[in-house]
Amino acid sequence: MNKLHVHSLRKHEILRKKLPISLLFKRGRSLKGDFLKMVYASLDPENNCAPGIPAILFAVSKKTVPSSVQRNRVKRMMREAYRLEKSHVERREEVHHDGGASEQLCIAFLFTGRKKTFPNLDAFREEISRLLHNMTLS
Questions:
Q1: Total-model pTM
Q2: Cα dist. 104→7, 20, 40, 43, 120 in Å?
Q3: Of 78, 107, 104, which is closest to residue 93 (Cα–Cα)?
Q4: How far apart are the C-alpha atoms of 34 and 55, rounded to whole Å?
Q5: In a structure prediction context, what are the per-residue pLDDT tens digits for the chain, which is 138 residues long?
Q6: Which of 53, 84, 106, 113 has the most CB atoms in a 10 Å sphere around its CB?
């Protein structure tokens, strides 16, 4: 029963510390979709991270979505969409890193949609997949 599911999103994959988050927004590149913005950068890994697994941050501002219930729903949908699409990112990471570099990919997904209605899970999956596919790793 120790076998992990392929599409799991574990606690140590979530980006929480203040320093890596500030470095991500200072040094990172960004891509903008219809209702999501993705900021990504390769940073020095944290002590508790697994190699080859990107650190992820999901954010929805109070200004964009005033209701906390709706903000939490959008974040849940973003996490679920990423969780289902993350195997593509891990494969790209393995191809990009030939075992030499000791940097970790950090990604932040920011919800920027300003419509009254929120996208469904399929729209989030398509948007995240498109953004991850257009990401250039250097």
A1: 0.84
A2: 19, 10, 10, 5, 30
A3: 104
A4: 23
A5: 455 566 677 888 889 899 999 999 999 999 999 999 999 999 887 655 566 788 999 999 999 999 999 999 999 999 999 999 887 776 666 555 555 557 889 999 999 987 778 899 999 999 999 999 999 876
A6: 106
